[in-house]
Amino acid sequence: MDESQDPDVHGQKWTRAPRWVKVTGVVVAVIAVLLLAMALFGGGQHGPSRHMHSSHTLPASTGQ
Q1: Residue 46 and residue 36: Cα distance in Å, rounded?
Q2: Ranges of Polar residues compositional bias (predicted)?
Q3: How does pLDDT run across 2-60, given as a tens digit for each residue?
Q4: How many helices (H) and strands (E) does the chain have?
């Protein structure tokens, strides 16, 4: 038998990943894509002004 075709030549035996590893990877990838899409396309208004009414104005500086 040719040693280059033996999967256990260097003491490593390749096995498939368990289902929970695959599911976790898919969930992490989906969340990453959603976060990237939100960052690129706006994802809403952020910051303290989103909690204020639009009629609310800041006081003018008196310059003293």
Answers
A1: 16
A2: 55-64
A3: 555 555 556 778 889 999 999 999 999 999 999 998 888 876 666 666 666 666 566 66
A4: 1, 0
* Distance between CA atoms of residues 24 and 58, nearest Å: 47
User: In the chain, helix, strand, coil percent, each to 5?
Assistant: 45, 0, 55
Give the count of beta carbons closer than 10 Å to the beta carbon of residue 52: 11
Write the single-letter amino acid at 38: M
Please, which residues have CB within 8 angstroms of residue 32's CB and are 6 or more apart in sequence? none
Round to whole Å and give the CA distance between 19 and 25. 10
